[in-house]
Design a protein that fits this description.
The complex is a heterodimer of chains A (about 325) and B (about 300).
Chain A: H1 2-29, H2 34-39, H3 46-56, H4 62-74, H5 88-123, H6 128-141, H7 145-159, H8 182-189, H9 194-229, H10 232-239, H11 244-281, H12 287-297, H13 300-328, H14 330-334
Chain B: H1 2-7, H2 15-28, H3 30-47, H4 49-52, H5 90-126, H6 128-142, H7 146-157, H8 161-187, H9 191-198, H10 203-211, H11 216-239, H12 251-258, H13 266-294, H14 296-299
Helix pairs in contact in B: 2-13, 3-5, 3-13, 5-6, 5-8, 5-11, 5-13, 6-8, 7-8, 8-11, 11-12, 11-13, 12-13
The chains are: A mainly alpha (about 325), B mainly alpha (about 300).
Chain lengths: ~325, ~300
């Protein structure tokens, strides 16, 4: 296991270098003078330009510049925002809990509905239920979520008036942010109605963000279950006279979950891409909206830093999934 | 003589018989056939958009701003699906928009497929450091969420439809490269490849004529999936204001323009999204059918 872990970490190093090179190159391939872009000033005297160039390290040879950049990253220095002049990392962490809260809720929704739906569809293969579930999954998988979100807003906020249109909580409530998770903070505040307000703000974005992972998980669970149900040991289990609930619940489900866990891990990248759209639609103050806003504001250091941080997070999650996979399935370790 | 040996890979029957067999299995999947019919209809409508569309996509009728669809209260027969905020006919814009979406899908898939096949062939065929280098580069691209990387590339290149397509093609390329590499590696030691080698076929011939045709099945399925994803992602970039720019009747851009009317004029928001959903769904249905028909494991069951 240790060997597997080390090998898996070793593969990560070239990817990390590659990802940091991409982020490093980003500022330098932009059209225009990087110093002017980064200093955020219009019109600069040649002396001031040379000074800024020296300050930002652009007068060094490229490999040195890269090593300096890398050293900064390893010390947690991802540069500072051109617009707000604050450190990119602290700006990121100010917004990350919002995205994390939304993503976790979406994932719970997706796995909580997707896995049972997939299992049931597999057991009742060929039935109307199966066709219905798989048809809905295909529609969900094909869904343009930047349309699905507005559609739900029209229905639930416009016509039914059940949910608010945007934000994380009603402005009527104010309490200190202890964890950054609005559901927990509103509960801790003890204000009546605060939690309900937070939930009503969260529910639509969570549904929108969950749609595609839900469809993927349902499809994957169904096909994994079908594969397992056809195995010899399933026939043996049934022949032994085990009750169907035990055959399906214990033998089939446990083996079918291995590919499903991988699928769930792979959905993290999908969630990040989905967060960009969902947060924009619902004005959710998270990382996705921050990145879109930064692109519009031409806050290049934020784009650079955010891109790198998000890629690193996805790499870490993939690593965690691989380790988990190795724990469940010993055969993987020996490959 | 050599020609015969080279062609005699795992292809026991003629091309015509293969197509017939393929169609037989494809037809079994009712969803796939429906998807194909819908898709062909969309293609035909897109090609004949100038003939079919009742109005020009950019023509503004200032006497009919935000007209509801014909069947709704206050609707007019001349604007079947209503008009947008500057009085343009939504149906006509959708029909012309279909041209953009299909064109985007085709171009993105061609760029990503060509690049991916070349990289995958070279990496799988020569292995060694070339393979390691290319695959690490592909890993790096895959480490970023597709839409985010596309967004950042567009931030560098500037927002436009062409740049959005280039960005999305780059993001999709690794999937094709990995698939090609994996099938090249599994084919490389088969007897027909060895016999072609013995017969004196050069690297290029081995790669493109002998091996590639036998790696096509998974690539075709992936191409279909990428086709629908390209339409979705380009529309998403358009929606974020980073793709096609107004007044282009691109579906995602239309949605972006319609956002402020969400609660006032439902039709401006509903129809462009419905067009995207139907098109993407039709292509995905065809993709599912292709996968089932091309996957030899499923044929026997």
């Amino acid at each position: 296991m240790l060997q597997y872990l080390l090998r898996r970490l070793a593969i990560l190093i070239p990817t990390f270098i590659g990802v940091s090179l991409v982020a490093f190159a980003f500022i330098r391939v932009l059209p225009g003078d990087p110093v002017l872009l980064l200093a955020g000033e219009h019109g600069m005297s040649p002396e001031r330009h040379a000074e800024a160039m020296h300050l930002l390290g652009f007068d060094q040879p490229l490999p040195i510049q890269y090593l300096n950049y890398l050293a900064g990253i390893l010390h947690g220095d991802f540069g500072q925002s051109i617009v707000t002049k604050r450190a990119v990392l602290s700006e990121f962490f100010a917004r990350f809990p919002a995205t994390l809260e939304l993503s976790i809720c979406a994932m719970i929704l997706a796995a909580g509905i997707g896995i049972p739906a997939g299992v049931l569809a597999a057991i009742k293969r060929g039935s109307t239920f199966d066709h219905g579930i798989m048809g809905s999954a295909l529609v969900g998988y094909s869904m343009p979520i930047f349309w699905w979100g507005p559609l739900l807003i029209i229905l639930f906020s416009g016509i039914l008036r059940w949910t608010p249109v945007s934000g994380r909580i009603s402005l009527l409530y104010y309490f200190p942010q202890r964890t950054g998770f609005m559901l927990i903070d509103s509960l801790l505040s003890g204000q009546p109605g605060a939690l309900a307000s937070a939930v009503s703000h969260l529910i639509l974005p969570a549904i929108v963000l969950a749609t595609i992972p839900l469809a993927v998980i349902a499809r994957q669970t169904r096909s994994a279950m079908l594969e397992v149900l056809g195995e010899d040991y399933m026939r043996t289990a049934r022949a032994k006279g085990l009750p169907p609930s035990r055959v399906i619940g214990l033998h089939a489900l446990r083996n079918a979950m291995i590919p499903v866990i991988t699928t769930i891990g792979l959905q993290v990248g999908v969630l990040m891409a989905g967060a960009i759209l969902t947060e924009t639609i619902f004005s959710w103050p998270g990382v996705g909206k921050w990145m879109v806003d930064s692109v519009f504001r031409r806050d290049y250091t934020v784009i650079q830093g955010g891109l790198l941080i998000i890629a690193l997070i996805i790499m870490m999650v993939n690593l965690a999934v691989d380790i988990l996979y190795g724990l469940i399935n010993p055969r993987i370790r020996r490959q | 003589m050599t020609e015969i040996t080279l062609q005699a890979g795992p292809m026991p029957t003629t091309r015509r018989a293969m197509l017939a067999e393929f169609w037989y299995y494809f037809r079994q999947n009712r969803g796939a056939v429906i998807g194909l019919i819908v898709f062909v209809t969309i293609v035909v409508l897109a090609i004949f958009a100038p003939v079919v569309a009742p109005h020009l996509p950019d023509q503004q009728y200032s006497d009919a701003l935000l007209t509801p669809p014909a069947w709704a209260q206050g609707g007019q027969m001349r604007f079947l699906l209503g008009t947008d905020a500057v009085g343009r006919d939504i149906l006509s814009r959708l029909l012309f928009g279909a041209r953009y979406s299909l064109f985007i899908g085709v171009v993105v898939v061609i760029i990503a497929l060509t690049g991916g096949i070349l990289i995958g062939l070279v990496a799988g065929f020569f292995r060694g450091w070339v393979d390691a280098l290319f695959m690490r580069i592909m890993d790096v691209i895959l480490a970023f969420p597709a839409l985010l990387l596309a967004l950042v590339l567009v931030a560098i290149l500037g927002p436009s439809l062409v740049n959005a397509m280039i960005a999305i093609a780059i993001v999709y390329q690794p999937h094709f490269a990995r698939l090609t590499r994996a099938s090249v590696m599994s084919e490389l030691n088969r007897e027909y490849v060895v016999s072609a080698k013995v017969a004196g076929a050069r690297h290029l011939r081995l790669m493109f004529v002998t091996i590639l045709p036998n790696c096509l099945a998974p690539l075709i399925v992936q191409a279909t999936l990428s086709f629908s994803n390209a339409i979705l992602d380009t529309a998403a970039l358009g929606f974020l204001g980073m793709g096609a720019q107004p007044p282009t009747p691109e579906w995602g851009t239309m949605l972006a323009e319609a956002r402020e009317f969400i609660l006032r004029a439902w039709w401006v928001v509903t129809f462009p999204g419905l067009a995207i959903l139907i098109t993407v769904l039709a292509i995905n249905l065809v993709g599912d059918g292709l996968r089932d028909a091309l996957d030899p494991r499923l044929k026997r069951s």
